[in-house]
Amino acid sequence: MTGSVTNACALAITVVITAACASTAGLRSEPLDAGETKFYSAPLAVVGPAARQAVLSAGLNVDTVSTPDSLTWMIIAKKGMSLFSYGELVRVVVAQTPDRAVAVRVFTKRRLATNVTAKGDWSGAIFQQLDRILAEH
Q1: Which pLDDT tens digit goes with each residue over 106-121?
Q2: Which CATH number characterizes residue 61's domain?
Q3: Residue 129 half-sphere exposure toward CB, CA atoms < 13 A
Q4: Cα dist. 8→13, 37, 114 in Å?
């Protein structure tokens, strides 16, 4: 009886931890307008690659770069585990707006929802790097 209770508790804990973990698939399915937004007057053909470079310069590892349509770039990046964090996932969406400005949206998720030591918001670091890169063009 004690063994089956212990197994049931272990299974319940595993389900809770797994449910609380963020994944790249889950990040891709979040609304494209989620996250912190900043607008740029440079063309999409310049801002897209610059955003990828900004993600790398901020200390993240780029997982995938995709173009859901001809006016949108989606960059999925990761910050790995460390002594104090289970890691984070970051999505950067670069999209041409109807008024010709380019919107850059940075959305961050902790790998584990209870991970209070994770940075939690990479938008400041990414926008700072993106501003620097675009100023050099």
Answers
A1: 998 865 454 454 456 8
A2: 3.30.310.80
A3: 18
A4: 9, 44, 22
